[in-house]
From TrEMBL:
Residues 39-109 form the DUF4283 domain. Pfam families: DUF4283 (PF14111), zf-CCHC_4 (PF14392). Residues 175-218 form the Zinc knuckle CX2CX4HX4C domain. InterPro entries: At4g02000-like, DUF4283, Zn_knuckle_CX2CX4HX4C. This is OLC1v1023835C1. It comes from the Eukaryota.
Length: 277
């Protein structure tokens, strides 16, 4: 049986007959049961098919919403979330990326368009080695758009980005290798800015793509004997710790109220600023 994707591909190759080739306008239709402010479409990037019940159970556990939601399957690993509260929906969108089973990205689209792009996922990264004059929103936007599609940069209440690293959110393609470094020529100097990714759970150490691991990599040649070549990607791409916007209690051992240690042996609070008078 053909999947929805295969059907679209087949239709694209056909010579359409009269009636099939006419594009009918829907602009005169007014009835809709979809409230765009309560709706999200989510696609789970997982190598196997997962039931919508299982997706919903995982989401309920990690979202902890005030008024809950309902789900319907609308495709393979594709579900329609209908929220009972607009604030709940906004919090879910703001909290991206979401990983189900701590591994598989659930990409959300704030619309009811099933043909939307579900390969772009918002992600937080840490950009290291920035000189202080580059720790600002303009440079963060510039750098974020080099890596993917800039979304926002983390600042303190005074819109100040200066800290141990720039924390930037941007949309990355789940079909492309992770970027590991950005290089700049700045005031006559060549600078390397390494990247680390928050909440990175599993990714391929061979090709750098998030949706599979090295043992299932379609581009990795079969190994002959013991290869001494170290992999191009590794656990050093994972940022230590992440900031969960839904945490209400301040962890006792860190300065930043949103900081959640991520199996980390290092506690980081890079934007803490204390005033002295
Ligand atoms: Zn791979």
């Amino acid at each position: 049986m053909a999947t929805e994707e295969e059907l679209s591909s087949i239709i694209g190759r056909l010579s359409l007959r009269e009636g099939e080739a006419t594009r009918h306008s829907t602009s005169s239709l007014t009835a809709t049961r979809i409230d765009p402010f309560l709706t999200i479409i989510g696609k789970l990037h997982c190598p196997r098919v997962v039931t919508h019940d299982s997706i919903a159970t995982h989401c309920r556990n990690i979202w902890s919403l005030r008024r809950g939601f309902a789900v319907r399957p609308v495709g393979e690993n594709l579900v329609h979330f209908k929220f009972n509260d607009r604030i709940d929906r906004a919090r879910v969108m703001q909290g991206e990326p979401w990983l189900l089973g701590r591994k598989y990205p659930l990409v959300l689209q704030p619309s009811y368009d099933l043909s939307a792009d579900f390969d772009l996922c918002p992600w937080w990264i840490h950009l290291y080695n920035c000189s202080l004059d580059l720790m600002n929103e303009e440079f963060a936007r510039f750098a974020g758009n080099l890596i993917g599609e800039f979304v926002e940069v983390f600042t303190d209440a005074n819109r100040n980005c200066i800290g141990r690293f720039l924390r930037i959110k941007f949309k990355i393609s789940l079909k492309k290798p992770l970027m590991r470094v950005l290089q700049f020529e700045h005031e006559g100097r060549d600078l390397n800015f390494p990247l680390q990714y928050e909440r990175l759970a599993e990714w391929c150490y061979h090709c750098g793509i998030i949706s599979h691991v090295e043992s299932g990599c379609p581009t990795k040649p079969p190994s002959v004997g013991n290869s001494s070549k170290s992999p191009e990607y590794g656990p050093w791409l994972r940022a230590k710790g992440y900031w969960n916007p839904f945490v209400s209690k301040r962890p006792a051992n860190v300065l930043d109220p949103f900081f959640v240690p991520d199996d980390s042996d290092e506690e980081v609070a890079p934007w803490s600023e204390r005033q002295f008078h």
